[in-house]
Amino acid sequence: MACEARSKNIFISADTNIDLFKTGLSTAKLLEICDCFGFTPNVFVPTRVTKISSTCIDNIFSNISARNTANTVADIGASDHKLLLLSFEGLSMSSPKTSRDLNKNSKLIRKFTDSNLDGFLRALNNTDWGFNKYNNANLNYEHFLTIFLNLFNEAFPKTNKINNIKTKKKWITRGIQISAKKKKYLHQKSKWNKTPNS
Questions:
Q1: Where are the alpha helices (DSSP H) in 67-113?
Q2: 74 and 129 part of one domain
Q3: Same domain as 77, residue 105
């Protein structure tokens, strides 16, 4: 499992509440733990800024080389923490496309028709299962399951079914957009105009 994890690109995004700008015990412990597991922080700029402080308490840790990285920290007004964006040169993060990805309006199904069922039963009856009485039960079961699943997939192959395309109503109305804009404005205003009682 550890070898499998080392062969993958892993990213951990976290609000650690440990300021990397400080050289205290908590910072040292966090960096030591990261180093033990092969992770390094990628953000070294302020991620939370107030009228009285500027700290780097949010980060994206990764187990890949940080030589070709570029990070962006942006204030989108939704929180007192900034948005973290991280990009890696020459690193593909896309997973292999499946048939479902290629056609969002289709899905894979199996057809259990009478003729398919008859063919499956015939295949089961005509199969030489080849059990070995000298093998243990686990080996015989694996042998049985492999043959059974092969016959099942041949009798009931997966086929693409095209779904009817339905137009979805947009739930983000004009009223919601106005409210979101007002909330963002009030958040920014409250963040920079704090009083001793707030």
A1: 99-102
A2: no
A3: no
Domain range for residue 55? 2-88
Q: Are strands 48-49 and 54-55 parallel, antiparallel or unpaired?
A: antiparallel
Contact 66, 43 (CB under 8 A): no
- Nearest residue to 133 (alpha-carbon basis) of 148, 145, 143: 143
Q: Does residue 84 share a domain with residue 6?
A: yes
Asked if 58 and 13 sit in the same domain, the reply is yes
Q: Which two tokens stand for residue 119?
A: 């063919």
Give the amino acid at 11: F
Q: What is the pLDDT along the chain (198 residues), one digit of tens a residue?
A: 344 445 678 889 999 999 999 988 889 889 888 888 888 898 889 999 888 889 999 999 988 765 666 677 877 666 788 888 777 765 554 444 454 454 566 677 888 888 888 888 888 888 888 877 777 888 888 888 888 888 888 888 888 777 665 555 567 788 888 888 888 878 777 766 666 665
Same-domain check for residues 117 and 69: no
CA distances (Å), origin 132, targets 96, 123, 125, 143: 39, 21, 19, 10
Helix (H, G, I), strand (E, B) or coil at 103: coil
Domain total of the chain: 2
